[in-house]
Design a protein that fits this description.
The complex is a heterodimer of chains A (328) and B (510).
Chain A: H1 3-14, H2 16-31, H3 38-63, H4 71-88, E1 90-92, E2 97-99, H5 103-127, H6 132-151, E3 156-157, H7 161-168, E4 170-171, E5 174-175, H8 176-194, H9 196-206, H10 208-213, H11 218-244, E6 246-247, H12 255-265, H13 277-296, H14 301-327
Antiparallel strand pairs in A: 1-2, 3-6, 4-5
Helix pairs in contact in A: 2-13, 3-8, 3-11, 3-12, 3-13, 4-5, 4-6, 4-11, 5-6, 5-11, 7-11, 8-9, 9-11, 12-13, 12-14
Chain B: E1 7-18, E2 21-32, E3 36-40, H1 47-54, E4 62-67, E5 70-72, H2 77-82, E6 85-88, H3 100-104, H4 119-132, H5 148-161, E7 166-170, H6 178-193, E8 197-201, H7 205-211, E9 214-219, E10 222-228, H8 234-242, E11 260-270, E12 278-288, E13 292-296, H9 303-310, E14 318-324, E15 327-329, H10 334-339, E16 342-345, H11 349-353, H12 360-365, E17 373-374, E18 377-378, H13 380-393, H14 410-422, E19 428-432, H15 440-455, E20 459-464, H16 467-473, E21 476-481, E22 484-490, H17 496-503
Parallel strand pairs in B: 3-8, 3-9, 6-7, 7-8, 13-20, 13-21, 16-19, 19-20
Antiparallel strand pairs in B: 1-2, 1-4, 4-5, 9-10, 11-12, 11-14, 14-15, 17-18, 21-22
Helix pairs in contact in B: 4-5
The chains are: A mainly alpha (328), B alpha/beta (510).
Chain lengths: 328, 510
């Protein structure tokens, strides 16, 4: 008797982002003729894939009880490095040689840059006990500066069709960025739900001290989390660069905020330990549908920003109400 | 009692219950003008609860408090302060980055006609107060530039600034130096001369010969006795503090232990801020296979810190030689401690023992997840088997293994913690107040479990501030006081009196 309403409430709380998404899809399709078409569907999925890559990493980081403000900057640097080495190689004047990169080599170089900067975030946070907010704010500036140094402030263009395929190609009727996003979602859903690392992630975010007293190597776990976050930002950087056929020095400006928004809208708690990758996928979809729908409805971009902000506030407010109920 | 001094505060038949505990049971207390009444009793006797009621932190369930003949009832500490009752807590209640004057007038800042803080007036009045108390610092000094003893004087100044007629002090000498104690006692004499009634919670009986007038002894939430101090001997007080019936029966046979599992030599722990001070010093101990070693000490004796050291939580501040099975090992992190067969069930279950947002199942398997893996994934069936076995073995009452652990009762949470550790197959189990705040049935189950584990060859180090628990469960008892080991007593020779004697600080004035 008493059990049923509680169960329903929990179910409702868990599926609130799904319900919100459905409502939005229904509303948009009634308001616009072009919204509910296959083309527009793929369009939305392709548009959100970059944010999805960032947000998967951000979900891991927020689940562990942290935050990462540097992912947009890492995205830019990783994209620029991949584009730069692909186009120009690396000159080693003192050896009088020039290292040329294959496509695969350039991609690896870009991802390695992301992993390295992410690792550095984790190292600084755990070794010097800096708050993640501050540590990654520093990295934000460092990576932005390095991007300018590397590119000289100019876009790197002319990267070739095979690189562009990552961003614009279509395989089996599905755009490449969507394949990549879907694959990453699958990998990280399994990682968070089926492995020891995933379990530890929730434990560290839920109660760091208890996790430590249970023998978990909290610092190692955190370093891994930030490293993965950096790597995923680099993948996002490759997608952006490939799609535009150009590495822009200002790529990814403000993207960290979009990804935090997607994570939060997806029901992941900013205090850590609670949330999921699938929630974040929904969060990305909600933001994607919102952007796309408002664009189709010719809503001014300024209003789009205002509406997006309101959605974020509503999502977090609902989440807070729910968590208060849970704590009784 | 000495009837000559005027009664200032009278509490009669005050009772207070918290969920599961009757913290105070019809306790009466009289505080007289210009006299210091010492409140004595073990931890958990109800002294602090009584003081918290008088100072407006809690409301009593029953009973009446009269201040200068009038019945009073406070909703908060501010109302109590306004009526002239001030309390100085063991953990000082000051804001360390504000100045002395700002702290004293926090929330009651004098304002000038424009509505801004009247700094001049504030500093001027602070100076007057500090002068009375012989504290030679500027009112503008940030509080964190002062030593703990000086900060305490600032607390007293704060109390005086609200014209306190009743001053309550909770173990004021536990964290300050001998010289500072002398200064404090001088201040207390002055306050008494001014007619302030003082209630003074302490474990240091020696102090009372110097400053005390009356004594009130409490035990298990009840008033045991009240008398002028000159009519009581130290031994009488100790008997009043501990003398009670044994609630737990001893079941274990007297075994002979021969194999040392864990031995510790020269353990010392430095203070995390004041590096020249030691929180723990010169501690040697050992635990035999299958033995339950009880560690008793009063608040601040360093029991919890000792367990934390053993479990590798103070790698930088703690030095010691650990031997496990006769082999020298270094324990510099909890992970290393667990590798060496140690397990710790911490005192604060919610903050340190459990991840409250995770399920019963996830909490149970968290410590030994590495053993339950297949191809890099968690082996769910094996994990479920472990969890179900744990729930069955310890009779954990939960609707399902997937229930969030925050919804379980304290006793069931503790059982999950024990189950979590036993799954790692430890050799030494460290238990810090394992029965604090849990109901009687769960307590009995945990006692039975400890005995069973000991008989199965597991060594247990049991830290507790409950004497009957220590006496009933331990094969050997180690007593600590102020960071030192003061006694080691075989179970046959142990009784409440000799343990309590070793646990009480031997003051310099003795």
């Amino acid at each position: 008797m008493n059990f049923m309403p509680k169960l329903n409430r929990e179910l409702l709380a868990k599926s609130q982002s799904l319900i919100a998404l459905l409502i939005m899809v229904i509303a948009m399709s009634m308001l616009s003729d072009t919204f509910l078409t296959p083309d527009n569907g793929w369009n939305i999925l392709r548009q959100i894939s970059v944010n999805l890559c960032l947000s998967i990493g951000m979900t891991l980081i927020i689940l562990s009880g942290g935050i990462d403000l540097s992912v947009g900057a890492i995205l830019a640097l990783a994209g620029a490095v991949a584009a730069g080495v692909l186009r120009n190689g690396i000159a080693l004047p003192w050896l009088d040689t020039l290292i040329q990169f294959t496509l695969a080599g350039a991609i690896v170089a870009g991802v390695l840059v992301g992993l390295a900067l992410g690792w550095f975030n984790g190292f600084v946070i755990t070794r010097f006990r800096l708050p993640p907010f501050v540590a990654t704010l520093g990295m934000f500036s460092i990576a932005r500066g390095l991007t300018m140094l590397w590119t000289g402030g100019f876009p790197i263009t002319g990267l070739g069709a095979s690189f562009g395929y990552i961003g614009t190609g279509v395989m089996l009727g599905v755009p490449m960025p969507v394949w990549i996003g879907a694959a990453l979602v699958a990998i990280f859903v399994v990682l968070t739900l089926k492995t020891r690392f995933g379990r530890y992630l929730y434990a560290v975010g839920g109660n760091e001290r208890a996790a430590r007293l249970t023998g978990l190597k909290v610092d190692n776990i955190k370093i891994w989390v930030y490293t993965l976050g950096g790597g995923l930002a680099a993948v996002a950087g490759l997608l952006v660069t490939a799609r535009l056929d150009s590495a822009q020095p200002n790529a990814g400006l403000g993207y960290e905020l979009d990804s935090i928004a997607a994570v939060v809208i997806g029901g992941t708690s900013l205090s850590g330990g609670r949330g999921s990758i699938m929630g974040t996928v929904l969060g990305c979809l909600i933001i994607g549908v919102l952007n796309n729908g408002l664009f189709l409805l010719n809503v001014s971009p300024f209003w789009q920003q205002v509406i997006k902000g309101l959605v974020i506030l509503a999502a977090v407010a609902i989440d807070k109400l729910n968590s208060k109920e849970n704590q009784d | 009692m000495s009837g000559d001094a005027e009664v200032l505060l009278e509490a009669s038949n005050v009772s207070k219950s918290f969920p599961g505990v009757r913290a105070l049971d019809k306790v009466s207390l009289t505080l007289r003008r210009g006299r210091l009444t010492a409140l004595l009793g073990e931890n958990g006797a109800g002294k602090s609860t009584l003081m918290n009621i008088i100072s407006g932190v809690f409301k009593q369930d029953e009973g009446e408090i009269k201040l200068a003949g009038e019945t009073v009832s406070f909703n908060n500490t501010r109302e109590a302060q306004a009526a002239g009752i001030a309390m100085i807590y063991q953990e000082l209640n000051l804001v360390s980055n504000l100045s002395v004057a700002e702290n004293i007038f926090l929330g009651r800042e004098p304002l000038n006609p424009l509505g801004f803080i009247d700094r001049k007036k504030m500093h001027c009045e602070t100076e007057k107060l500090l002068q009375i108390l012989d504290l030679d610092v500027s009112p503008a000094t940030p509080l964190n530039h002062l030593r703990v003893g000086q900060q305490q004087v600032v607390e007293i100044a704060k109390a005086l600034s609200c014209d306190a007629r009743v001053l309550i002090m909770d173990e004021p000498t536990s964290a300050i130096t001998e010289h500072e104690i002398d200064v404090l006692f001088g201040i207390i004499d002055k306050l008494k001369a001014q007619g302030v009634a003082i209630a003074y919670i302490t474990h240091k009986l020696e102090e009372l010969t110097r400053i005390g007038d009356d004594a009130v002894v409490m035990r298990d939430g009840k008033l045991i006795g009240a008398a002028p101090l000159k009519d009581l001997s130290r031994d009488e007080i100790i008997t009043m503090m501990v003398g009670r019936e044994m609630a737990i029966t001893r079941k274990r046979s007297d075994k002979v232990f021969q194999r040392s599992i864990l031995s510790v030599a020269n353990l010392a722990l430095r203070h995390h801020q004041r590096n020249e001070e030691f929180v723990l010093k010169d501690i040697d101990m050992n635990v035999q296979q299958g033995e339950v070693l009880g560690i008793f000490g009063l608040m601040g004796a360093g029991r919890t810190e000792l367990l934390e050291c053993l479990f590798g939580l103070h790698p930088k501040l703690c030095s010691a030689q650990y031997k496990i099975d006769g082999k020298l090992v270094a324990i510099r992190s909890p992970a290393k401690a667990i590798e060496n067969g140690l397990a710790l069930a911490p005192e604060d279950r919610k903050k340190e023992g459990l991840v409250l947002g995770m399920s019963v199942s996830d909490n149970t398997s968290l410590a030994c997840l590495s053993k339950y893996q297949r191809f890099g994934f968690i082996d769910r069936p094996a994990e479920a088997k472990l969890v179900n076995e744990t729930i069955a073995r310890f009779k954990v009452k939960t609707p399902s293994p997937r229930q969030q652990i925050r919804n379980l009762s304290g006793g069931n949470q503790q059982k999950v913690i024990l189950g979590k550790w036993l799954a790692t197959k430890p050799r030494v189990l460290l238990l810090d107040e394992p029965t604090r705040g849990i109901d009687i049935n769960a307590k009995a189950e945990i006692y039975a479990l400890i005995q069973e584990l000991g008989e199965a060859g597991l060594s247990v180090i049991l830290v507790s501030s409950e004497l009957p628990e220590i006496l009933a469960m331990s094969d050997r008892i180690m007593v600590m006081c102020e960071g030192r080991k003061t006694a080691e007593i075989a179970r046959a020779d142990a009784n409440e009196e000799n343990i309590m004697k070793a646990a009480l600080p031997q003051g310099v004035t003795h």
